[in-house]
Amino acid sequence: MANGWSIFIGLAIIIAMCVAAWVFSPKGENQVLWRSSLILAFVSCYLMWAITFLAQLHPLIEPRRSDIRKEFVHH
């Protein structure tokens, strides 16, 4: 389930939700506020999810056990 395609699938879903927010936002004097708020919320949630997902998918630091004696550690 967790692979590189998840980012693009999530992006496609977020784009669809942004288009839906643009088209179906309530008409009236607050239409721009509705559109901006919904699209900003969708994009912010996606960015937070994507950064967290990618950080776990490809960590910068490899975890190492600290309870192993030095003579048994393979570098």
From TrEMBL:
<comment type="similarity">
    <text>Belongs to the V-ATPase e1/e2 subunit family.</text>
</comment>
<keyword id="KW-0406">Ion transport</keyword>
<feature type="transmembrane region" description="Helical">
    <location>
        <begin position="37"/>
        <end position="61"/>
    </location>
</feature>
<dbReference type="GO" id="GO:0000220">
    <property type="term" value="C:vacuolar proton-transporting V-type ATPase, V0 domain"/>
</dbReference>
<dbReference type="GO" id="GO:0046961">
    <property type="term" value="F:proton-transporting ATPase activity, rotational mechanism"/>
</dbReference>
<keyword id="KW-0375">Hydrogen ion transport</keyword>
<dbReference type="GO" id="GO:0007035">
    <property type="term" value="P:vacuolar acidification"/>
</dbReference>
<keyword id="KW-0812">Transmembrane</keyword>
<dbReference type="InterPro" id="IPR008389">
    <property type="entry name" value="ATPase_V0-cplx_e1/e2_su"/>
</dbReference>
<dbReference type="Pfam" id="PF05493">
    <property type="entry name" value="ATP_synt_H"/>
</dbReference>
<keyword id="KW-0813">Transport</keyword>
<keyword id="KW-1133">Transmembrane helix</keyword>
<keyword id="KW-0472">Membrane</keyword>
<feature type="transmembrane region" description="Helical">
    <location>
        <begin position="7"/>
        <end position="25"/>
    </location>
</feature>
<protein>
    <submittedName>
        <fullName>ATPase, V0 complex, subunit E1/e2</fullName>
    </submittedName>
</protein>
<dbReference type="GO" id="GO:0012505">
    <property type="term" value="C:endomembrane system"/>
</dbReference>
